[in-house]
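User: Please predict structures.

Assistant: First:
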Amino acid sequence: MHELSICRAIASSVEDHADGRLVTSVRLQIGHFRQIVPETLSYCWELHTRDTPLQASSLDVDYIPAVIRCHDCDTETTLSQPVIRCGACDSRSATLVSGEEFLIESIELQDKDN
């Protein structure tokens, strides 16, 4: 369950950037090839942030599909399996366009006055 260690790293970075302000939500971009189970990530976030300043925050995840661009016919194919093969010409000569992302896209903060 590497999702728990991922949540620890995210929480640490978020707390550093929040600078004492209340965090209401954390938005992530996670690519298909990162092999993170959404339900497990959400569960681990709740578990790790319980009784911390991040307890009230939500974890919002945008899952990015794995997409390749074929070198032979220049077609983009969204992969449903972890097999890099063009959906148009069946070529294996391709470049990964998306699917390896792992990014804290944004952090929503409440003003210190509220």
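Second:
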Amino acid sequence: MSYVKRNFATSSNGDQWHLVCTTDARTPLVRHEPNAASGGSASEIDIATFLQRDPGAPQTTALLSLIEALILDVLEKSVGREAFLQKLRNAQEDAVEVALSDSKIVLPLTTTYEALEFFNCMLDLFTDQRTDDLAAEASRIPAGFGSTQ
């Protein structure tokens, strides 16, 4: 079986992590290749398990950054990033339910509303909308300021 792989993290001891897809099934996996001195063999794991295993690890953060970059690249090459993001922001709960119905990743969310909220939060994070909202809130005049009395 052959792979298409993209390195997303290398540790100080030489371990490497790659996002890989098999050329026949196009199944995305994370491949860990330990450094030569350890004598260990390479291993593969599905993305969801990898992300859940050690959420604060540098290699986990690096994979999330790569996924974000890949998503934004696809958006910019398709209908245009802003138009696509606006469509996503206007998504309804039933659209999220349909999208998740074929997903092989089981989210730790119990309702489609929670999934939609999570999705919107991630969009806000990717687009810096949350930062913009906080800056706009900080620049508003507080209620009761400037009374005419």
